[in-house]
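User: I'm writing a tutorial on reading structure tokens. Could you give me a worked example: one chain, its sequence, then its tokens, then a sentence or two explaining what the tokens reveal?
Assistant: Sure. Here is the example chain.
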Amino acid sequence: MSEERVVTACVLIIGNEILSGRTQDVNLAHLATELNEHGIQVREARVIPDDENEIITALNACRARYDYVFTTGGIGPTHDDITAECVAKALGRNLYSHPDIEALVRRREAPPSVMAARMRMALVPEGAELLTFSFGPGGFVVDDVIVLAGVPRIMREMLTSVLPKLKGAKPVRSRTVSAYVTETQIAAPLRDIQDRFEQVAIGSYPFTHEGKFATSLVVRGTDADLLDSVCGEMEQLLRGIGEVFDPES
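And here are its predicted structure tokens:
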């Protein structure tokens, strides 16, 4: 049997404002969900500062490990928006001002100093494919790097436009079963199940429900029949120790 093809990705969240806590990132959850539905598994995510060396180092490291690298943030008009420049350097491409983006920027009149700042958004690496959104210039794709905006609404529109162009595989699905048990009660038998089903990933997540300790077991994989089989064994394990229930009911 041939090994199942897996397509992987890393997300680089770029911005000092994220690291400082001033802004909370909401893009990763959306990216991971949408990419998985397209058959691209997010295997790593990093939050890095607006620093040229940090961005270039992260890009090169992640490109060596994953099929795609997605970046969010750093493509605006201010001095600290350096993502495009860093991607160009990491890929050994020249940076130039794209005429199509320049035309979009010039549609809105502004004083010379403001216009000069806006023109920074026209800078892209040579060979990049543009990702525009409905209100103006957007991100771009170059080789295996997809550069997206940091503003969530804009990022989502860009992602929607680029997804059909990316190669994916089977999406990862999950099954969940919960019971009034503690992790220590099920740790050993749960390891046995995981050892017998290496094709799936099993996670254990403790929580409280109606004042009692409980645990949810989640199995993830691409084979629906196998997921059902493993979930059945996990449910049997939990029923032998505690009361199985649905936390959502």
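What the tokens reveal: The first helix runs from residue 16 to 19. Residues 7-165 form a domain with the Molybdenum Cofactor Biosythetic Enzyme; Chain A fold (CATH 3.40.980.10).
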